[in-house]
Sequence to fold (125 residues):
Amino acid sequence: MSIAYPLFVFDKSDRAMRLIEEPERLFFHLEEIDIENDEYLFWDANGTGVRVRIIKRKSAAVENCEAAKPLSEAFLEYGQSLGLAIDVSGRPLEIWDRMKHEIKRNPKRKGPFAIFRDRGPSKNK
Fold:
């Protein structure tokens, strides 16, 4: 079975997700050492489990494998980490598009000064 791009990548440590659009972009988004240390879960565009194996510097084999968890579960965890309720019905790319739309509508505030971002200009002169 061939791998269908894009790949969905779930970061186990912070429950973030990203999309790898094509094989050449793999190392643009991910560190080799993190892949070797099994810090990510991968699925292809169809939601099939994928394993990325480092062959040599900046070279990897992408192979089908049994997924450690369903892609829909990773989407739910990602949504929860952002404080969003995500509808995980439909094809993986449809779900991804819905998630991105919700993230744009409801950006998560981060950092110690996040409470000041949406208050507008200061009234003090």
The first strand starts at residue 7 and ends at 11.
